[in-house]
Amino acid sequence: MYQVLIADDEPWVAYGIMHLIDWESLGFQVIGTVYDGLSALRIIQDRKPELIISDIRMPGLDGIQLLEKINQMQLQTKVILVSGYADFTYAQQAIRFGAFDYLLKQIDKDKLKETISRLIYCLKDTQRSSKELDLFLDDLFELLEPDNKITIGNFLNNKGIMNEYPHYRFVCCLYSTSTALLSEQKIMPEKELHTIRFRTGQNKISILVSYDESKKNFDFSNYISEHFSQCTYIGISSIGLSSTPIGKLYQEADIAMFSSYFHHSNTINQYKPAKLSLEVRQMILNLEISIKELAHKNIVNLLNETCQECTREHLSIEQITIIYNQIVSMIFKYHGNSNVIDEIEHLPYEHIVRIFRSPEQLFERFIFFFEQLTEVEVYIPNEQVKRVIEYIDSCFTEDILLSSIAKKFNISLGYLSSLIKKETGATYSEYVLNKRLSMAKELLNDGSISIHEIVQRVGYKDYFHFNKLFKKNFGLTPSKYRKI
Question: Which SMART domains does the UniProt record give (predicted)?
């Protein structure tokens, strides 16, 4: 049964809407009536109803502001706005921000039923699409794995797709919101190329493009610029042939896209093979000597210099991942017995971009670590440790850095890390991962919730990233686990 929330600052109006039609016969449960926008927002965040009927003028947050908040949180909640005024400006704003409909008071019973009937069709269509997407994503996840040897030619033949062009590239596009992605849902056909589009994340699409590189009258970069103007970060793979593994080109485009994301560079980025310069390799060698000797000042200076080099030379996330894991190896080699080592671990590039968000954050983490090595521990009462765990439990579906929690509770980062490990038996990142995956397993038992919706609910935006984590921990992809 779908859930509906009614919000109006006039209680008798909210009561009237609740009793105007037989909601249950239409498949809806009224979960409450509220009289201001902030109360509505709290319930929406907690219950995530399919529908909210909201007055356009309310204290706290008005209907338009509430609609904006729902869009910012990237929820699937549909909004019907209600107004006592036939105000064209309000109607325009409502439509622009994605309201499902705009009704005038006094609400006509037949008009409301007609609107709800259209909404039900829309919700069912979304559910059908979600189930189809779940099946497709499971195949796609296996197909686009970097280790998969299936070639582009094999993939096209298996799908019965004929293609006349000899060259291939993958293009990965990351949007600021799913709304921006949907605004570019259709790609205009081109005589010079053929495209196959994949939805690979909440805000991410990936396109396999085939074309003829030898034709000088076709500019590939211009085509991407023109057709993906709403996209924030774009990554393009190297050129492949029908004999090229499809997973290889996808990973190249993904790396190129996340390189732009990591550097906050709004440019089209083409993949280049990872190779560290002589200067960077020398910095890492000097850093190892300083780490071995625990020369704190030199360590900090070299970490800052390496960070500046990564930013100045716009090193790819693949190159930065190599540097990161080399430093982690040095830490394990020379300080493996330290009690603040729990949050330091080897990571693939897709984890690094989600944990650190920028080169500065990544190298600051190492600087924090070396500061903790010489820091004197301060006793933290048991009650405060429990408050920290309760806080993590309340927001584990959000992307919150351990350093932010340390700052909030005024505890040093390294000491907080060791406290969490002592209290839970796991590092912070392991604890959050286990909470998210446990929640995902519970949600997978409800067949009415699509897998890509579960991915969003537990705090992930990238379907592939979630699939990898789930399979690594449980040995099955989410869709196969659901069938057990």
Answer: HTH_ARAC, REC
359's enclosing H/E stretch is helix 359-373
Q: Where are the alpha helices (DSSP H) in 25-143?
A: 37-47, 63-72, 88-96, 109-143
Q: Please say if the pLDDT value at position 35 is more than 70.
A: yes
Say whether both 345 and 247 belong to one domain.
Answer: no
Do 261 and 167 have their domain in common?
A: yes
Q: Tell me the C-alpha distance between 207 and 268, whole Å.
A: 14
At 274, list the tokens.
């990872």
Q: Are 259 and 289 part of one and the same domain?
A: no
Sign of the C-alpha dihedral, residues 223, 228, 231, 234? negative
Residue 339 confidence class, pLDDT cut points 50, 70, 90 = low
Q: Is the pTM of this model over 0.90?
A: no
Percent of the residues in the chain that have a pLDDT greater than 90, as a whole number: 39
Residue 167 β-bridge partners: 211
Structure confidence by residue, pLDDT tens digits, 150-175: 999 998 888 777 778 899 999 999 98
The Cα-based distances of 265 to 222, 231, 309, 318 in angstroms read 18, 12, 16, 16
68: containing domain: 2-107
